[in-house]
Recover the amino acids of this structure.
């Protein structure tokens, strides 16, 4: 099938670009002896995760137990869930998962750690727990090396837990200092820090500048989007995902309407101007969204589209787009090669 035969709006991945993105990051991390553990929340597709593993990844990262369950069912046996898992039902599911594959998780409080220990004890399993460290995002994470060291000692003292190391997101200049100070506090009586997990596509090409880092978690790099374009991590030529849309109305000479609204492009802005980059009309601005309509200002464009013309859009945040579609198309050139089910799309717990 030719991609022009696809009904719009539809997400289309250029498979040559995506495969190059996978190979490029793996080669870089291999060169610097940093393990690759890609984050699958960007694509949520087992077939793409398998491409990442075949290229040399040591395992994958999932953000939810439900994502990890789907990926385990697809054959993945080393999964990191960097999230505070709390609540009896979630913990029971985590232990069921840990009984069949290797799972590691994170915690940033004694409450979470004790819950993990109790669940692992009931299940008769050992669970690897890393400490999440807040190095500037102001989200989850212990706030100081002292807190990290205290929590590491607690993990090491509780039954059926194994201290696995530390993790942080995103990468910045505070990582190495935080890790070194924590390591120093644990030197005499604490468990060793064997694993330092960092992440984020924007900083991936700077991973080698962090000597404490042992593994990297990037997700967006596989597709690329306007967020990663802004950071310089990808280029227009390496962005593999495009949303194909159609101009369905031209109410005025300057204004056009696309069949791609907030239920296609998401409402994420993240400080960007407009809701996507139209490749064929780079001067255009998607300035507003209805649920099924994209409102475009074409006034800055020398040539303006006709009704019925198809365009391709690089979204602001590709991870959000993935969660809005049941299927993603894989194409080489202008020809459809794959139709992937977004298997973990409904994984929200």
């Amino acid at each position: 099938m030719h991609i022009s035969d696809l009904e719009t709006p539809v997400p289309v991945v250029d498979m040559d670009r995506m495969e190059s993105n996978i190979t490029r990051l793996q080669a870089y991390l291999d060169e610097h002896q940093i393990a690759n553990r890609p984050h699958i929340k960007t694509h949520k597709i087992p077939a793409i995760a398998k491409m990442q593993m075949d290229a040399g990844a040591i395992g994958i990262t999932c953000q939810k137990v439900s994502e990890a369950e789907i990926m385990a069912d697809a054959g993945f046996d080393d999964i990191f869930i960097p999230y505070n898992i709390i609540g009896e039902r979630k913990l029971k599911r985590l232990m069921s998962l840990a009984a069949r594959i290797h799972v590691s998780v994170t915690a940033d409080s004694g409450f979470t750690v004790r819950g993990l220990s109790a669940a692992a004890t009931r299940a008769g399993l050992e669970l690897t727990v890393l400490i999440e460290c807040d190095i500037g995002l102001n989200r989850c994470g212990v706030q100081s090396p002292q807190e990290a060291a205290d929590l590491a000692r607690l993990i090491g003292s509780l039954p059926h837990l194994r201290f696995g190391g530390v993790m942080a997101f995103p990468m910045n200049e505070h990582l190495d200092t935080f890790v070194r100070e924590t390591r120093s506090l644990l030197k005499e009586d604490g468990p060793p820090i064997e694993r330092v997990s960092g992440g984020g596509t924007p900083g991936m090409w700077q991973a080698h500048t962090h000597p404490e880092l042992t593994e990297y978690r990037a997700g967006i790099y596989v597709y690329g989007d306007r967020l990663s374009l802004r950071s310089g991590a990808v280029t227009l030529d390496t962005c593999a995902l495009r949303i194909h849309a159609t101009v369905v109305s031209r109410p005025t000479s300057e204004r056009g309407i696309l069949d791609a609204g907030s239920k296609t492009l998401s409402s994420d802005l993240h400080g960007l101007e407009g809701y996507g980059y139209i490749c064929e009309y780079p001067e255009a601005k998607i300035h507003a969204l209805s649920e099924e309509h994209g409102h475009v200002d074409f006034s800055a464009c020398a040539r303006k589209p006709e009704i019925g013309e198809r365009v391709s859009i690089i979204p602001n945040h590709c991870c959000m787009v993935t969660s809005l579609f049941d299927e993603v198309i894989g194409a080489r050139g202008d020809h459809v090669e794959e139709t992937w089910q977004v298997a973990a799309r409904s994984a929200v717990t």
